[in-house]
Amino acid sequence: MSGWPWPHPTWALVAAAACCIPAPLVSAQAPIGAIERNRRAVLKQALDSRTLSAGAEGALLKALSEMGLKRGAIGIDHAAAAAVYERAGLAAKPRYADNVLRKIRVIKSANEIQLMRRAADINARAALAAAKTAREGATYHQLRAAFFTEASKLGNSPAFMSVDRMSSEVGDAPIREGQSFFIDCVSHLLHYHGDYGRTIFVGEPLKSMRRATDALSLGWDAVRERLKPGLRYSEIKAIGNEALRKAGYRFDVAFTPHSVGLMHTDEPGRDGTPFLVKDDLALEENMVLSVDLPVRNVGIGGSAHLEDLTLITKDGSEQINDIGDRVIIV
């Protein structure tokens, strides 16, 4: 935090109190850089106008007072903030506002859409590059390392990579010839997330796995054709399942939609629930949507998944990552 150009002197005090880091002494062995000059100037301005607080909570209470937030309804996003109000006996009524922020974030601005396009493109390219390194004798750990490395090289910050139904980074196994397994890759650019899933065939797969990935492709195409403002999450599931049924497939596919943005699952839940319980949202213009399509059956010779990011437009939808290579054969 020492180099950040704080927008308000009060927050410089909060940061200083929370970190307990005094302004560093000047050694005069080299010129002071612009970041450090700015940091010291903002801190001096704050200290000239008020005294330091004994701790972070005291500094926060001062900030609340200066900003007129000691009474009324105050939106919070963490229980710790409510505890501060309660201990201080303030007249304000803290209200959990995480869902409000999530509702705002669902609709992306033009700048956010630009960031989402870039993040999704990099994420998909990094996932494909990593997938093509899969070989007999390699491991899931090495596959994750390849994705993390490639995403970083291209400019994204890697978040996680699920491999063959395992999301934990401690989960590992050797890759073998004839294996079929899925990857689900997430990374972000300035906190805007890409989300991409594919199935990898290492050599010749079983017929059951080819049939499973064919089913995913057909179901995803059926859903993509119908994506537009007004369509509800529940209808997405129904469209996908009906397409599989009509084509004679009997696979259990999730068809789970979720908004993507500043968080991997960037959407509101039902108010009043302690955990995120999704509402049956209707799609809106400028949402960025993922539809997770993992096959949930076991005993089919492996695992399969398909996932892309879609921008909801005024009267339809647009893919923001390359949707080719639905199955990666190595």
Describe the structure.
The protein has 330 residues and is α+β, with helices and mostly antiparallel strands. The chain has 9 helices and 10 strands. The longest helix is centred in the middle third of the chain and has 22 residues. It is globular. The two termini are 45 Å apart.
Short description:
The protein is α+β, with helices and mostly antiparallel strands and about 325 residues long.
Output the keywords.
single chain, 330 residues, alpha+beta, Creatine Amidinohydrolase, 2 domains, four-stranded mixed sheet, 16% strand, globular
* DSSP E strands, number: 10
CATH class of the largest domain reads: Alpha Beta
Sequence of secondary-structure elements: HHHEHEHHHEEEHHEEEEE
SS element count, helices? 9
Lateral strand order in the biggest sheet: 3-4-5-10
What would the principal axes of the Cα set say about the shape? Answer: globular
Indicate the proportion of strand residues. Answer: 15-25%
Question: What is the count of distinct domains?
Answer: 2
Low-confidence stretches: 1-21
As an assembly, this protein is single chain
CATH-scheme architecture of the largest domain: Alpha-Beta Complex
